[in-house]
Please model this.
Amino acid sequence: MSEPILSVQDLRVTFPTEDGLVRAVNGVSFDLYAGKTLAIVGESGSGKSVTAQAIMGLISRRAAQITGKAVFQGQDVVTMPDRQLYRLRGAKISMIFQDPMSSLHPYYRIGAQLVEAVRAHQQVSKAQAREQAIEMLRMVGIPAAERRVDDYPHQLSGGMRQRVMIAMALINSPSLLIADEPTTALDVTVQASILDLIAQIQQTHDTAIIMITHDLGVVADVADDVIVMYGGSVVESAPVAEIFAAPQMPYTLGLLASIPRLDRDPDLRLDPIPGNPPSLISPPPGCAFNPRCGYSRLVPDDRCQQELPELLAVTADHRVRCHIPATDREQLAREALASLATAPVGGEG
Model:
């Protein structure tokens, strides 16, 4: 296999606050290859977006302590000087942010913002940059691009603004695209068209993509590999088919149980994960998921309450952070997956 375009090794991000240290990202590692999509999933506060911001070099080193490595095309972003980061962002690595209304400047026309993105990284005239902007708006499916290029963000619908954000992220043909909840607050049909657009662009340019989401339905459609994060750490990682067919971490089982599915009886209930995510300032001892996990009884000697589990290999491409014995995890997964399709309203599962 070729070298990864991005190799993240033991990435840690800690924010000092008056209440203590916030360990937002705690030892994240993964490799990403050109043309592949890695999904990072988890609840709010699990460390997904902070991981992406650290890779983009968007976290001030004066406000946070960042350690580990994020090696992009042979260069470590974590230790890269600010001037070099500026040249990298928007050119080789781009990001689609969650909220296009707050990400686009409300006082400037979208064309002017696209032109600025081009001229920051290319030696071209304003007229040439404007032509690139119009062509990119056409590519992302905005009708009458020659006219809409002079619109302000408030004149566009939510779906159109998100397309503008995608155009801005892709206008310099980056090798790596980070999409942070790119379909949040969009209706289902617009969401599908945005995801199709990202997939088409990936196929055309062999772009590597990190898709950050809490929606496992999106993951099933777009990802090649999946990382599940909880409490700032990776708790399970595997190819997408294996995550859905043979999940092993109880937290992953909980995420799967909470997904609405069209192939289920509409009268069946969703089964949310009880409790709340852990504090990143004072996480519980032992396994961070232990206070919400219903299976710690399967582990002797209170290990779940006292000892942090390691991220260990299940197969060559599948890793899980859990004290439950492998045979018990496999049995739990089989039972949980079966119950998703069979549990009656008010019943077990």
Summary: The mean pLDDT is 89. Residues 7 and 71 are 5 Å apart (CA to CA). The chain has 13 helices and twelve strands.
